[in-house]
Amino acid sequence: VCSSDLRAPPSAALAAAETALLCAVAAGIVEDRATNVLTVVDFSLPSTEPRLWVLDPGTGRVQWNVRVAHGRTTGEALALHFSNAPHSNASSIGLYRTGETYVGKHGRSLRLDGLDEGWNDNARARDIVIHGADYCTGEHVEKWGRLGRSQGCPAVDPAVVGPLIDTIRDGTLLLVYYPDPDWLAGSPWLHCGA
Questions:
Q1: Tens-binned pLDDT, residue by residue, of the chain (194 aa)
Q2: To the nearest 5 percent, what fractions of the chain are helix, strand and coil?
Q3: DSSP 156
Q4: Are 79 and 93 in contact (CB under 8 A)?
Q5: How far is CA 51 from the centre of its chain?
Q6: 32 by DSSP, 3-state: which?
Q7: Residue in 172, 189, 154 with CA at minimum distance from that of residue 16
């Protein structure tokens, strides 16, 4: 079940994700299969909008465009604060590589490994994973005017979590974007050609 609105990500988030993919390929941290899928989350958009995209970088085709939650301490409808600290209940920006799946308290979930040192490299230790959550549905938005918030995980609607995980699992890249000037200037994944 994909969103019917399969528009492309905003240009700044898309450009950052494409650069990160090229840098990751140059560094040899992704396998060939992983270059066929690129996930972009744009936390500069409100949680009421579909702000997670799964793209085929070769063709530019949008495979998924769905809503995604941010952390409890990251903001209400808008994400404003990010943290890599354990127990912060905040989202972390930066480049991730998807890991393995497992079944936990939220059902089928996908582990994430943060690749941006100091920004998201505590993701696995913090149990930052993609999982389904009832607070990520359109009904929740209609009732509360925003998505619910996670403990830092990029949670999605339970109706899409299984097929979404199957599309991006096992070593593909996910960029969580926000126009933080320090991250934009300092992430090695955004400047490998410089």
A1: 334 456 778 899 999 999 999 999 999 998 776 788 999 999 999 999 999 999 998 888 999 999 999 999 999 999 999 999 999 999 999 999 999 999 999 999 999 999 999 999 999 999 999 999 999 999 999 999 999 999 999 999 999 999 999 999 999 999 999 999 999 999 999 998 65
A2: 25, 25, 50
A3: B
A4: no
A5: 9
A6: helix
A7: 189
Task: Check: pTM over 0.90? Answer yes or no.
Answer: yes
Length of the chain: 194
The answer to whether the beta carbons of residues 144 and 166 sit under 8 Å apart is no
Q: Two tokens at 173? A: 């890249």
* Distance separating alpha carbons of residues 124 and 126, to the nearest angstrom: 5
Helix/strand/coil (H, E, C) string of 121-134? CCCCCCCCEECECH
Q: What is the chain's Cα-based Rg?
A: 15
